[in-house]
Amino acid sequence: MVSLPASGSVFIAPDSVILIRGKVYNYQQEPLAYASVGLYGRSIVTVTNTDGVFLLKIPYTHRRDTLVVTYLGYQPLRIALDTFSGGELKFQLREAPVELSPVWVRSISASSIVEQVIRNIPNNYYQQNDMYSAFYREIIRDEDDYLSVIEALVDIAKAPYSSWLLNDQAKIFKGHRSQAIKQLQAFSFKLEGGVYNASVRIDLIKDPTLFLSREGFPDYV
Q1: pTM of this structure
Q2: CA 134/CA 120 separation, integer angstroms
Q3: Which label site among 8, 123, 136, 212 has the fewest CB atoms less than 10 Å from its CB?
Q4: C-alpha of 8 from chain center
Q5: Is residue 38 part of a domain?
Q6: Within this chain, do residues 116 and 81 fall inside the same structural domain, yes or no?
Q7: Least confident of 71-85, 137-151, 170-184, 205-219
Q8: Are residues 149 and 88 in the same domain?
């Protein structure tokens, strides 16, 4: 519903810009905060504040467009701009509850969930040999200083997920390395890395011992 005073003008058009002020509320006279107010089919939009009040700037060339007010759980409201006669606009939205699908809640153990994950791997993951291309980057950094940067395009041969015997393979297609040798002399260790470990071994489904180990089931709570 739109309520307009008998006199005055809602349009203020300095530099061919229309300013529209208004308030959005429900049938209980409660303001609707963060309701969306904009022009239909255009990217000119704003939201109401915590008091349900908004201010929308519209180019004068769109003065014959349609204003749309939407809010989750309420019916959208559309009004032609050229029907506004003056004063602060008031938009009253009618409730439109959204019916959600039922949700069944069951109490099951964490270990049984992990068991189902492992059991369904053949159904949920690709069972053929396949080739992938990937981008690899390895960085050693001391605060904001980059001491070593390695980047490469790699080819990855993935074995079927149903096979626990065949290993995935990774090969560098093209790569380059930038290194600050003098600064690196202070390092006495380097973490295990490389194309194979970073690009292939982190596949928790293909190599489940890193995460889905059956020996660790009693630890799931």
Answers
A1: 0.43
A2: 27
A3: 123
A4: 44
A5: yes
A6: no
A7: 205-219
A8: no
- What letters, b where the CB count within 10 A reaches 16 and e where it falls short, cover 149-180? ebebebebebbebeeeeeebebeeeeeeeeee
Q: How far apart are CA 6 and CA 149, in angstroms?
A: 70
Residue 31 near residue 25, CB atoms below 8 Å: yes
Q: Are residues 125 and 211 in the same domain?
A: yes
User: What DSSP character marks residue 207?
Assistant: S
* 86/122 same-domain check: no
Task: List pLDDT tens digits, range 127-139.
Answer: 788 888 888 888 8
- CA 20/CA 37 separation, integer angstroms: 10
Separation between Cα atoms, residue 70 and residue 120, nearest integer Å: 42
Q: What is the pLDDT of residues 73-91, one digit of tens each?
A: 899 999 998 887 767 789 9
Q: What is the largest CA-CA distance in the chain?
A: 83
On whether residue 43 sits in a domain, the answer given is yes
Confirm whether 134 is domain-assigned. yes
pLDDT tens-digit readout, 101-113: 899 988 887 778 8
In a domain, residue 102? The reply is: no
* 82/116 same-domain check: no
Count the domains in the chain.
2
